[in-house]
Design a protein that fits this description.
TIM Barrel; two-stranded antiparallel sheet
């Protein structure tokens, strides 16, 4: 439930700006590994997301990949998919810089550095959240990335509040954050959990508030536990961050962006009807088929269908049906059965 404070704060939301890139409404789609491809971004944009990030790409992948059929979707952009960020993750500062150049050449408007991924295999390869344990390397990556891209391309960083909750970890966090701004980073997205927490336990919004109070003139975006439009506006109201990035809460729920806009105007919102869900599911499949081709699309869309099922009045049955999808015929048959 949205309280009076939230609605009052929502009515005074500030337009979001990242460097020279104007975003506008400050509720945007985060980078989601394995999800935020062009098809998902377009569905989000059509439902109110003014800005989105691609799924994270490894620096070494960017240096080696060629635009073949199985990899071209990573670089697929259209005129209506802007502004868009390319998110980069890796271990070596030099490779980061080269990878950033590849993203700029592909047409991305913002370069986002991932220092937040908590996945075990990522940490084991000295990537993602691991960099929060080594400020010197992290700041070298930021400096080289910033120097390697044109001045009009903003560089941003995604961080968690530290490797853990120790005093040493907190000190390293602030060393990286202040150093990042000093080296020209235009904005930082801050997740309220530590790397060790992964996705367990609540995201600490109080920490976001403390950071924003410490850096009132810097662009800070918040992340973590944003599953409804009310959550998005409540985070902005409680922490004072300049915007929020919706991650898992946007998978299968693109309506979250339109709902946030409606709530910011003081309007009531309603869950999407079965017909509205059907239309989005059909369009999402069409876009994905254009991106991946008919043969690959079906299995890749199962994970999206499973998430969309949560909006249905019979989520368990619909979820089970999506698991069995193999192709467009299966998808259409499912829509006729459950979304007629």
């Amino acid at each position: 439930m949205t309280d009076t404070l939230d609605l009052a704060a929502a009515s005074t939301l500030r337009p979001l700006q990242i460097g020279p890139v104007h975003i506008g409404f400050p509720v945007v789609q985060a980078a989601l590994s394995g999800y935020s491809d062009w098809a998902m971004r377009m569905i989000a944009r059509r439902h109110g997301a003014p800005y989105a990030s691609c799924e994270v790409m490894l620096d070494e992948f960017l240096l080696q990949v060629r635009r073949r059929t199985r990899t071209r979707h990573f670089f697929h952009l259209t005129d209506d998919d802007h502004p868009v960020a390319g998110q980069l993750m890796g271990a070596e500062p030099l490779q980061f810089a080269a990878g950033a150049g590849r993203l700029v050449a592909a047409g991305f408007d913002v370069i986002d550095i991932n220092f937040g991924c908590p996945v075990k295999k990522v940490l084991g390869r000295c990537r993602g959240g691991y960099h929060l344990s080594q400020p010197a390397v992290a700041l070298d990556i930021i400096a080289r990335t910033r120097d390697s891209v044109p001045p009009h391309i903003p560089v941003t960083v995604k961080m968690r509040r530290g490797l853990d909750d120790s005093a040493e970890s907190r000190e390293k966090f602030h060393e990286i954050l202040s150093g990042a701004f000093h080296r020209g980073v235009a904005a930082v997205t801050l997740h309220g959990r530590t790397v060790r927490q992964r996705y367990v336990g609540p995201s600490c919004w109080t920490f976001l508030r403390e950071v924003k109070l410490h850096y009132p003139d810097r662009v800070i975006l918040g992340s973590g536990d944003l599953f409804t439009a009310e959550d998005c506006l409540r985070m902005i109201a409680h922490t004072g961050v300049d915007g929020v990035t919706v991650a898992r809460g946007a998978i299968g729920n693109p309506w979250i962006f339109d709902h946030a806009r409606a709530l910011s105007r003081g309007e009531n919102v309603e869950l999407p009807t079965i017909a509205q869900q059907r239309d989005v599911l059909r369009e999402h499949y069409r876009l994905a088929e254009h991106l991946y081709g008919a043969d690959r699309c079906g299995p890749l869309m199962r994970k999206f269908g499973i998430k969309y099922a949560a909006q249905h009045p019979q989520p368990l049955e619909v979820r089970a049906a999506f698991i069995r999808v193999r192709n467009r015929a299966d998808w259409e048959s499912l829509l006729q059965r459950w979304y007629a």
